Amino acid sequence: MRKAIIVWGGWSGHEPEECAHIVGELLQEDGFAVDVTGDLGIFGSSVIAKADLLVPVITGETIEKAHAAALVDAVRGGLGLGGHHGALATSFKESASFRYVSGVTWVAHPGNIIDFRVNVTRQHDPVMEGIPDFDYRSEQYYLHYDPSVEVLATTSFSGEYDAASRNVTMPVAFKRQFGLGRVFYSALGHVASEFEHPYMRLILRRGLSWAARS
Question: Can you tell me whether residue 211 is helix, strand or coil?
Fold first, then answer.
């Protein structure tokens, strides 16, 4: 049985504890043994590298330099890393090592909570198979991302709320290889209620399962 560790923390507006438990339920449905913890000290523990999947549900916070380096090495060695919305994109923003392995950094969400369209760009990918383009209401994330990512879905900015973003097409979901490890990210899921959207939920479930060590 594959082992997943979910670590929650940081800004309460993203409802990290509630979201962490929902993610845990999704992974249990896929046959994972799941540990959910709010102890950020776990990043200094050897149990991280022994897991098959790590899911930070963390906005902000800090990570010790040695712990971030160990996490990078663990993913290089095969540990899967995945997350949604603020997780990965806003976790440990001051850590260059974490930014390197996550492959994504949040920088803006013009208009805050708005309606936008998600366009599936790889409909034959196992993560996206059978999922059509769909409408979504949340923060439309403007991201800085690693050029190595394989983009699975995108969104286009109208420029209505920030002219600098007009006609920009931005990844919503991607996957990447990092050494022997896999990384998956979905920008959807600002708060726990968004897990009620069937495509948001399915994309995350499939993406995290893909990222896990096989």
Answer: helix
For residue 16, which of 57, 69, 66 has the smallest C-alpha distance?
Answer: 57
Structure token pair of residue 160:
């209505």
Residue type at position 37: T
Residue 135 burial (CB < 10 Å; 0-12/13-18/19+)? exposed
**How confident is the model over 8-54, as pLDDT tens digits?**
999 999 999 999 999 999 999 999 999 999 999 999 999 999 999 99
Question: For the whole model, what pTM was predicted?
Answer: 0.97
Cβ 175 vs Cβ 184: under 8 Å: yes
- Tell me if 176 sits within 8 A of 182, measured CB to CB: yes
Phi, psi of 44 (to 5 degrees): -95, 10
Report the alpha-carbon distance of residue 29 to residue 35 in Å, rounded. Answer: 14
